[in-house]
Write a structure and sequence with these properties.
Layout lengths: L1 H14 L3 H4 L4 H15 L6 H10 L6 H13 L4
Helix pairs in contact: 1-4, 3-4, 3-5
Organism: Paraburkholderia edwinii
Protein name: Cysteine rich repeat protein
Keywords: Signal
Length: 80
């Protein structure tokens, strides 16, 4: 889920269009973090690993919907 989210985020940034998000089944999740990614981590775009690390570093500054996404993705990966 987490990798898919950042792949779609990367596709959006590369394409410069919301069309990439409309095609995604994780549309709401991507929308939840898109502004935060641009606001807090634009210097890391297009490197998805750096974007993810930056977002985690700025967790307290993320919007509540985006924080929920990171909470759910970290709980999904606890067993890995």
């Amino acid at each position: 889920m987490k990798r898919k989210f950042f792949a779609v985020l990367l596709a959006f940034v590369s394409a410069g269009s919301s069309v990439a998000f409309a095609a995604s089944s994780d549309k709401d999740a991507n929308k939840a973090c898109r502004r935060d990614a641009f606001r807090l981590c634009s210097a890391e775009i297009p490197n998805k690993d750096k974007i993810e690390a930056c977002m985690k570093e700025h967790y307290d500054q993320l919007s509540p919907p985006c924080q929920k996404l990171f909470q759910s993705s970290s709980s999904n990966n606890d067993g890995k």
